[in-house]
Amino acid sequence: MATATKSRAKAVVTRKRHTEGFKREALGLAEKIGVSEAARELGLHSSQLYGWRSKAELLKTRGQVDQEQAKEVARLKRRLAEKEEELSIVKKAAAYFAQGVK
Q: What is the mean pLDDT of each run of 10 residues along the chain (102 residues)?
């Protein structure tokens, strides 16, 4: 039984990479005229724009979380410094009164 092998030439399809600037402008256009219309004008799939928009919103949310965490860290550092100063004062007072007991 002889089988014939078929040689198929596979077309190499490379994904087109868009710059962040292009994505921002595309999202701005989508905001103005709608996702479907912007995708049609730019030759993109609307799902690409939706994906870019979701990712941009996620990054913005992460940025807000990072800012809130930075504020909390700064507040906690200030509080720690205050407590360290209070402890230093208490230690000095304890040493002073311990000298009087001897």
A: 56 79 91 92 91 90 89 96 97 89 65
Q: Which two tokens stand for residue 19?
A: 């710059």
Please choose, from the candidates 32, 24, 30, 23, the residue with its C-alpha nearest in 3D space to the C-alpha of residue 46.
Answer: 30
Whether the CB-CB separation of 62 and 52 falls below 8 Å is answered with no
Please give the single-letter amino acid code of residue 14.
Answer: T
Q: Specify the 3-state DSSP secondary structure of 84.
A: helix
- Under 8 Å between Cβ of 38 and 29: yes
Domain count, the chain: 1
1 lies in a domain? no
Task: Determine, yes or no, domain membership for 62.
Answer: yes
